[in-house]
Amino acid sequence: MSDDDSGEGLRAQGLAALDRLVDATAAERIAISLASLGFAIIVGTVLVFVSGFVAECRDPFIYLPGLGFGCYNPLEVYWTMFIGSFGSMTDIGQTLLQTTLLLFTGLSVAVAFRAGLFNIGTQGQMVLGALATALVVLELAAYVPDNAAGMLIVIPVGVVVGGIVGGFWGMIPGLMKAYANAHEVITTIMLNFVAIGIAFWLVQVHVGDLTTDSVQTESVPAVARLPATISGSRFSVIALIGALLVAVGIYLLYKRTVIGYDLRTSGIQESAAEYGGVNAKRNIVTSMTLSGVLGGIAGAIYVMMVQYRWQAGIPPLGFDGIAVSILAGNNPIGVIPAALLFGSLKTGSVAVDLSLGVPGELVEVLRGLIILFIAMPEFFRMIGKRFGYGNGSVVTDGGEA
Amino acid sequence: MEPDEQDERATTGTPPAVHLDGITKRFPGVIANDDVDLEVERGTIHALVGENGAGKTTLMNVLYGLYEPTEGTVRIDGEPQTFDDPGDAMDVGIGMIHQHFMLVDTMTVAENVVLGDEPTKWGGIVTDRERANRETQALADRYGLEVEPTELIEEISVGEQQRVEILKTLYRGADILILDEPTAVLTPQEVQSLFGILRELIAEGKTIIFITHKLGEALEVADEISVLRKGKLVGTVDAETATREELARMMVGRDVLLEVDKPAASRGDLVLDVEAVTIEDDRGVVAADSVSFGVHQGEVFGIAGVDGNGQSELIEAITGLRKPTDGTITFDGRDITTDSRRSRVSAGMAYVAEDRQKRSLVMEYELQRNGLLGRQHLRPFSDGRLIDWGATGEYVDDIIEEYDVRPADPTAKAHSFSGGNQQKFIVGREFERDPSLVIASQPTRGVDIGSIEFIHNRLLELRSDGKAVLLVSSKLDEVTQLSDRLGVMHDGEIIAVVDPDEVTEEELGLLMAGERPDNLDVDGARVRRSSV
Questions:
Q1: Contact B364 A268 (CB under 8 A)
Q2: Domain residue extents for chain A
Q3: At B40, phi and psi to the nearest 5?
Q4: Quick one: residue B492, left, alpha or beta (phi over 0 = left, psi -120 to 50 = alpha)?
Q5: Domain at B1-93+206-255: CATH code
Q6: Do A32 and A329 touch, CB atoms closer than 8 A?
Q7: Closest CA to B442 of B417, B493, B479
Q8: Cellular component terms, GO, for this chain's entry (chain B) (predicted)?
Q9: A263: closest CA of chain B, how far (Å)
Q10: Burial of B484 (0-12, 13-18, 19+ CB in 10 A)
Q11: Is the distance from CB of B144 to CB of B196 less than 8 angstroms?
Q12: Distance between CA B512 and CA B514 in Å, rounded?
C-alpha cells in the first residue's frame, strides 16, 4: 500500500513537473539548457574517467590503487573540445563554418515544422541542390570575368539554382501530401534515397570529373568560391550573415505576416484553413517547397564554401538539421544557438580525436550526451504540449477557472 | 447483477451500487469537485446534469479511475475502492462511454467490440472472427442493440457507432455504465432508440449514470437527477416530480427563460437566393438535388432534417467550401456561385460551422490567433500582408467579455476550453463583424443551457437588426422556436417550407422522415415558397 502511495505521488509530481516544463518561460528554458549542459559534462566526465581504466596507453594520467592506471583526463578532454572549437581564429572559423551550414538545414526543418509538417528530406534536397549549384557555376564561370564582378554574378546564381532545385525536390512530397494524402515523413525519407541515388549516378556516369576514380565533379573556379573571412578556414561571414537574415525572416514570417499565418494554419488544420478562406492544399505545397529551398541553399553553400565541388558522401547535415530544429523547439531564432552548439561540438570533437589518444567513438558518445541532455527537456516539452499539459489548463474540464 | 440478486439486495437494504462519498478533486488553482455526495441505486438510471465546466466529467473520471480524488471515497456496492487507472475500475464492472467515440474506423463492428480481448484460435495466434461476430451478435440481441457485426465502423451511422461503444463496454463485463453526453451527436430518432436501449439495460440489472445538460432528456429517461453547479452538488431530485424550470434554476443558479420570446419579423430584401442547386458529396453521390430557397433581411430561415440528408453539403456550397454541380447562388444581388470562400467572407457572410473543432477553430492556436481566422486578409486585422496583433487582440478581448468566454484568457489554446465556451467564442467572432448574412449550423450542439439561451438571443438580435439568418439544426425545438420560415430537408430535397407556428412536432417528424402528412397542405407550403 505504502509502495503504491509513493508511486502515485511520484507520478503526480512528475506530471506537475511536466506541466511546469511546458509553461517554462524563455529565460527558464535557457537556464534549463545550461544546467543540462552541466549534467552532460558531469556524466561524460565519469564516463571518460572510467573508460580510462579499461583502455591501455603509454603514459597514464592517473594511478589508483586497486584500479590500476587511468588513461584519460576528463578535464583535458573537455578542455580540448572547447579549445578545439574556440581556441584560435582558425578553430572559430571552422566552428562558424559548421554553424552556417547547420543554420540552413536547421531552418529548413524548422520552417516546415512550424507549419505542422515534418520534412525529413532536407538531406536529399541539399544533395541535389549542391549538385545543381556545382554544375551551373562550373558552366557559368567560363562566361564571366575572373574577378569580384564575376563573383557577384556567379555566387548569387549558384545560391538561386541550389534553392530552386532543392525547392523542387521539396515540392514533390508537398504535392503528394496535399493531393494524394501521402504522409510527408514517409515520402521525404524515400526521396532522400532517390536524390542521393540520382546525384551519384549523374556524377559517376554523365557529368562528373571522369579523370579521377572518385565520384565527384571538377573543382569550381575561384569566382564560385565564397571569399574566406578567417585565414586557415574556408568560412565566409557572408554566408553566415545570409543565414542569420533567413532566421530572422522566417521568425517574422510566422510572427507577423498573413502568409505565415495561412501557411501554418494550412499545415496544422487543413479544414479550418479552408474555413478561413485559405487554399490549404496550395499552402502545404508552399511550406514544403520553402523547406526544400533552404535545404537546397545549404547544398549551394556547401559547394561554394566548403567542398568547392560536388563529391559523393556529403555529410549528413540535413539530418543534423532535424536535431538542431528540435533542440531549438522549432523556433527560427532558437535555431541560431542550437546550430552554434552543434557546430562547436562537431569541430571540438575533431580536435579531441586528433590531439588526444581518446578514441573517436568515445568522443562521439560525449557529443551525443550533450545533445541528448539538452534536447531532452525540449523533447518532453513537445510531448507534453501534444498531450495537453501546461498552459495552466485543466485538461478535461476547462469550463470554470 | 442478476435480477433476483438485486431483489434480495433491495429487501435487505444493501448499499447502493455507486456511492461517491465526499469527493473533492482539486487541480492547481481549480476545485473541480467540492465535497460531492452521490448515491446511485442498482438497476436505475441516474442523470447527472450541470452546465459545461460544472464538474460532471471530472466527477465521472474519478469514478472511472482516470483521476484520483483529492479527498473522499468511492464505494462500489458498499466496498471502498481505489482505482489506479480505468483498468481497475473496469475490473469492478465500471465502464465509460465517452462523448467522442474511441473506435477504429477501418475495422468491423465485431472487431471493435472484442478489441483488446479477442477470442482467438490456432493456439492464440489468430483472431477468431467468426466467434467475435457470433458473440457480438449474441450480446447485441440480448440487450436489443441493433448492429451488423461485419460492417465497417466508417460505414455506419453515428447512432450505430454509439451502440458499438456500449457493446464494447458490455463485452468487458461492465455492470455500471457511465455515458458522457451520449445524445450530443444524435438525431431525435436516434436519441429515442438510445433511451430504449438504456431502459433495456436497467431491466437487465445494469446501473446507468447519464451525463447531460439537456433537461428534457434527463426528465424523460432518468429515475433520479443530480445537479452539479461549480463543482458542488446542488441536490438530487426524483425525475417523476421534478420540472424543467426547477432543474434549470438549480443548474444555472437563476431563473432561465426556456421559451424564446420572439418579436414579430419585419422582412426586408432578399439577401441569399439559392436557385436549383445540386451538390455531390465526397463520394460523388448527389447529396442535394435541385434545392431552392431564399433568406430575407430580418428573418430567420430554418432548415430542419435528420442529419445526413444533405444539409451539411448545402451549407458548404453556400459558404464556399464545396462546389455545386448545378444551379446558382446569389448573395446581395450578386451571383457568387463560383466565388471563393474568401470573397464570400469579405462580402459579409458569417458562418458558424457544424463541426467547430474541425472547421471553426484551430485547436492548437490560442484564442488570439483563432480570432483572426477567416478575416486575416481584411482590415483592421491586417493590411493584407502584415497582421495587426493590436487590433486583433482588442477584438478578441471584446468577444471574450461580451460573450462571457471562460476562462477569459486570450493566450489559452482553443483545445483547453469547454465546448460551450469554444462555441461562444466562435459565435462572437462571427456575429461581431457586421455580417449581412449569418449562417449558423448546429449552433448549440454540445453547448450548455446558459450558453444556448445566450446564443439564441444573439441570433434573434441579429434578426431584429435586419440581418438575414440561415439556421440549420437537428434540434426540432430550436428551429421551430427561432425560425420565421422552416424548410424541411429529406434525402437531398427541401420537401416543404412551412410556418413553424402552424405545424405540430408530429407533422414535422413525418416530414423529416420523408412522408407528407395528409392534413398538412404541403402544396400550400410550396406556394408560400414560390411567393418568395
A1: yes
A2: 21-72+357-393, 92-345
A3: -125, 120
A4: left
A5: 3.40.50.300
A6: no
A7: B479
A8: plasma membrane
A9: 12
A10: buried
A11: yes
A12: 5
Q: Mark the ranges of chain A whose per-residue pLDDT is less than 70.
A: 1-9, 386-401
Residue type, B173: G
How many CB pairs below 8 A link A and B? Answer: 118
Q: Do A261 and B376 touch (CB under 8 A)?
A: yes
For the record, the C-alpha cell of B491 comes out as 434525402
Task: Give the H or E element holding residue B45.
Answer: strand B45-49
Cα–Cα distance measured from residue B304 to residue B369, given in angstroms and rounded to the nearest whole number: 33
The rounded distance, in Å, linking the Cα atoms of A323 and A319 is: 7
Single-letter amino acid code for the residue at A171: M
pLDDT digits (tens, 9 = 90+) for B9-34: 444 567 888 999 889 988 766 788 88
Same fold, B1-93+206-255 and B270-348+434-530: yes
Yes or no: say if B449 and B215 are a contact pair by the CB < 8 Å rule. Answer: yes
Q: How far is B292 from chain A (nearest CA, A)?
A: 24
Helices A317-327 and A122-140, axial angle in degrees (round to 10): 130
- A3: chain B residues, CB-CB within 8 Å: none
> Which residue ranges in chain B fall short of pLDDT 70?
1-13, 28-29, 52-53, 124, 185, 187, 255-261, 516-532
A259 CB neighbours in chain B (<8 A) are 385
pLDDT value for B308: 77
Question: Nearest-5° angle of CA A42, CA A47, CA A50?
Answer: 125
pLDDT of residue A273: 94
For the domain made up of B270-348+434-530, give the CATH fold: Rossmann fold (3.40.50)
Please say whether the dihedral angle defined by the alpha carbons of residues B3, B4, B5 and B11, taken in this order, is positive or negative.
positive
What pLDDT does B257 receive?
A: 59
Judged by CB atoms closer than 8 Å, whether chains meet at A269 and B362 is answered as yes
CA dihedral defined by A270, A273, A274, A275, rounded to 10 degrees? Answer: 120
Could you tell me if A201 and A191 are in contact, meaning their C-beta atoms sit under 8 angstroms apart?
A: no
CATH match of A92-345 with 1.10.3470: yes
Instruction: Check residue B532 and give its pLDDT.
Output: 35
Domain segments of chain B: what residues? 1-93+206-255, 94-174, 270-348+434-530, 362-426
Asked whether B163 and B146 are in contact (CB, 8 A), the reply is yes
How close B358 gets to chain A, by Cα (Å)? 6
Q: Which residues contact B176 (CB under 8 A, 6 or more apart)?
A: B17, B18, B40, B76, B93, B94, B95, B206, B207, B208, B209
